[in-house]
Amino acid sequence: MGTTILTLVGLALGTVVQEDVTLLGAGLLARFGDITVLQAVLACGLGIFVSDLGLWFVGRKLGRRALRHRWLAARVQASEVERIGPWLDRRLGMTVLLSRCVPGSRLPLYLAAGIWSKRPAAFALWTLLSVAVWTPTFVILTARYGERFARPFQRIVGEGWPSYIALLVVLVFGLRLLGRFARSRLQPPTG
């Protein structure tokens, strides 16, 4: 029981540092019976939701002040910055949902939403919806099919954890490549 609680707390905290790897790890822990799928989904979902709202809060409390800093003010045009809020508010749901699937996009998007969005309740609800869809999907698919995806890696690096680590590395690398492609689709207009 104590080990399970520590595992769940570790998963919740792990989502703050590296969400995708933590979700994969949670799915594999569920696959091997160390925790249940429900425990994995709840721990990861709570960690993700709280950290997403935390990013929004940091943007709200510190963002505008940071933009007035001399270094940033010299690099960011005020006219472009002011267009981001209305653009984001018009597309809030879609950008939050898409950012869940695009690694590396949540930090800038959620900070920007905290700085410029006029719809904090809508942001929280869209974030909750995206977490409620993404987290169980990711964890359940990993718990169900993790071993199948790991088989090619097992042939190369052997059975056990080395093959799962190799799988995690390849999946994270693949998600990052996908993120680079998709991030260009989320950019606000410049001009």
Verbal overview:
With 191 residues, this protein is an all-alpha fold. It has one domain. 86% of the residues lie in helices and 0% in strands. The protein is elongated. The mean pLDDT is 82.
Total helices: the number is 9
Q: Report low-confidence residues grouped into runs of 5 or more.
A: none
Q: Distance between the terminal alpha carbons, to the nearest Å? A: 57 Å
Helix share, percent: over 70%
Order of helices and strands: HHHHHHHHH
Global outline: elongated
The count of DSSP E runs of length 2 or more, i.e. the number of strands, is 0
How many strands, what sense, and barrel or not for the largest sheet?
Answer: none
Q: How large is the radius of gyration?
A: 19 Å
Mean pLDDT across all amino acids? 82
Number of self-contained structural domains: 1
Structural class: mainly alpha
Q: In what range is the share of β-strand residues? A: under 5%
Identify the notable features of this structure and list them briefly:
0% strand; 191 residues; elongated; mainly alpha
In short:
With 191 residues, this protein is an all-alpha fold. It contains nine helices and no strands. The N and C termini lie far apart (57 Å).
